Amino acid sequence: MLSIACLHTAASNVAVFDAALASLPVAALTLTHTVRPELLRERDDVTLGEAARALDALAPGADAVLLTCSTIGEAVARTQAPCPVLRADAALAEAATRGGGLVSVLYAAPSTRGPTLALFDAAAARHGATVVVLACEGAWALFQAGEVERYRALVAVEAGRAEGRVALAQASMAGAAALMDRPPLTVPGTALMAAARAALARRRTA
Predict the structure, then answer these.
(1) CB atoms < 10 A from the CB of 15, how many?
(2) In the predicted model, is pLDDT for residue 166 greater than 80?
């Protein structure tokens, strides 16, 4: 049984990742969840260092650790865990840009724009893709107010207008895919598959 330890900054992402796991063709994979909402604050050295330590603390007993918050994704580079530690949106960036072409990347939280742009630009450069990063204006205020259905509906509308291959950069946006005729790429399933591959590879070489 492979164990993936997830670090979230939003409690609602627990259900999002559990649902994604249930829909994947992956056997013998379990998730554990730790929620640290206080890490979703100013993205500075103090916050990133605290997030890195939180990730390291989840490593014992885990085959891989997954950071699901795109705003503090840079913390992954600061970890010293003995197992693979992945940022969930990195797997999405790779999947979305592989094969080149135009990729429209949508985000909701203003704080995630910088990290998302840097991550997708780097992936696009590796794969010869063109990336356009778009804000879902007003969506994050709905999410923070607990109006999740309206949040997902607004994201779905904005994603439906986007051109090229569409990727929803935040895990919380994944529910919008079910409202769209042309489902976009989303974080949870893509990230879990990447984490499972990394965990399995570690076991094989251990």
Answers:
(1) 11
(2) yes
**How sure is the predictor about 6, in pLDDT bands with cuts at 50, 70 and 90?**
very high
Phi, psi of 36 (to 5 degrees): -130, 75
pLDDT tens by residue, 20-60:
998 877 667 899 999 999 998 878 899 999 999 999 999 99
Task: Give the count of beta carbons closer than 10 Å to the beta carbon of residue 12.
Answer: 14
What residue type is 204 in one-letter code? R
Q: Does domain 2-88+188-205 have CATH number 3.40.630.30?
A: no
- Give the model confidence (pLDDT) of 52-90 as tens digits: 999 999 999 999 999 999 889 999 999 999 999 999 999
CA–CA gap between residue 17 and residue 180 (Å, rounded)? 19
Contact 161, 99 (CB under 8 A): no
Task: Say if residues 5 and 64 touch (Cβ distance below 8 Å).
Answer: yes
Cα–Cα distance, 56 to 203 (Å, whole number): 18
Domain positions in the chain are 2-88+188-205, 91-186
Give the helix ranges, DSSP H, for the chain: 12-22, 45-58, 88-97, 113-127, 139-144, 148-161, 187-205
Give the DSSP H or E segment for 107.
strand 101-107
Instruction: Give the separation between CA 156 and CA 48, rounded to whole angstroms.
Output: 31
Strand partners, 142: none
Q: What is the pTM of this model?
A: 0.88
Angle of the 187-205 helix axis to the 88-97 helix axis, nearest 10: 100
